[in-house]
Amino acid sequence: MQQHEIQELQNKIREVSVFLQPLKTEIGRIIAGQEKLINRLILSIIADGHILLEGVPGLAKTLAVKTLAQSIDGTFSRIQFTPDLLPADIVGTTIYNHKEAAFSVRKGPIFANVVLADEINRAPAKVQSALLECMQEKQVTISGERHLMPRPFLVMATQNPIEQEGTYPLPEAQIDRFMFKLKIDYPARSEEKTIMERMAHPALELSALAVTSLQDIEAARQWVDKVYVDDKILEYILDITIATRPHRHSELSNRQSGANLSSLESLIEYGASPRASICMTLAAKASAFMQGRAYVDPQDVKNIAADVLRHRIILSYEAEAEGMDTDAVIGKIMNELRTP
Fold it and tell me: Looking at the 3D structure of the chain, how many domains does it have?
């Protein structure tokens, strides 16, 4: 892409992305702290991805997703996953209408712009698969009839890291369908004081204003697709993904010949799939768009790499014995690889 073309694209992206600041401000009016969660929610919805969230109860996960839906003038749905949940409870079913003597489709709660799948690991595999099919295919079939998901469509699924008894962990192939896996922690003391002052009112009902529209989100997605990614950035993304794959380090680009990744081969059982490279590229483009840029720079990739890779790397027993987690492994990879 020529320099003048990038400049023209830059001007257009700055014009199209003006809705982002009012959107962040409105969500911040309701949610105190959790800046990373808010940024990733917005990034995911304009990159057409989904989020898997791990965090203890009471960290405003439900409120954050609901506030996002209100701020974009979209529909919101919350599904509490339980062991007795059925696929029809999510996607819907056909019911018989006695007056008309005919069957009709009653759509389930999955048909919303923003869906919170709370404690997804509480439900059995059949129910999890029903949700993940909607996420991947953007459609669902009820009694042989195809129904498309609304656009935009964002799923944020949560997992409780504390209680693991009676849960059904998501298979690796299904976890791979989430663009991001986020880990959120307790708020800082100052943030928690703001939360107390804002929320400790019995009759309080916080509601966000619609500061943008679904059409703005759809338009943003089209411009995210046009964000320029240089070939050196694509090679860097490939280097990061390949570095997670044991015994495949010989495929790293010549630029990374000095990287010392030999110690990782005993720590990683399985590395990231090609879906990781795709998600990293999409997320980096969306990150550039959110900053009003028409091109991806290496920092965009670094900012989102851990969230994209965290759930796509399976560590070995040796890594677990050493007390290492995926974040530590990803950090080592990012430190060793040379930035373009």
Answer: 2
What are the residue ranges of helices labelled H in the chain? 3-16, 20-30, 35-47, 61-71, 87-91, 125-137, 172-175, 189-199, 214-226, 231-243, 274-290, 298-309, 317-321, 326-336
At 169-226, the pLDDT tens digits run: 787 878 888 999 998 888 888 888 888 888 777 767 778 899 999 999 999 999 999 9
Residue positions counted in the chain: 340
CATH code of the domain covering residue 316: 1.10.8.80
Rounded CA Rg of the chain = 21
Please state, in angstroms and rounded to a whole number, the distance separating the CA atoms of residues 272 and 278.
Answer: 11
Residue 314's domain comprises 227-336
Distance (Å) of CA 41 to CA 27, 156, 208, 291: 11, 8, 15, 15
Residues 195 and 232 in one domain: no
The DSSP bridge pattern shows strands 268-270 and 314-315 to be antiparallel
Q: What is the pTM of this model?
A: 0.89
At residue 254, the pLDDT reads 78
How crowded is residue 85: how many other Cβ atoms within 10 Å of its Cβ? Answer: 19
The total of other beta-carbon atoms located within 10 Å of residue 215's CB is 10
38 and 184 co-located in one domain: yes
If asked whether residues 215 and 246 sit together in one domain, one would say no
Same structural domain, 314 and 249: yes
Q: Are residues 152 and 261 in the same domain?
A: no
Note whether 103 and 97 are within 8 A (CB): yes
